[in-house]
Amino acid sequence: MKIINKQTCPTCGQTINEVEIVLVAPMVKALVRVFDWCSQNNQWEFRRKDILKNDIEIARFGDLRYFGDLVRKPKKGSYKISHARTLAFLRGELSIPTKVYKKTRSPFVHIDTKSFRTISEVPKLGEVLDEDMEIIVRYK
Question: The domain containing residue 21 runs over which residues?
Answer without folding.
Answer: 2-138
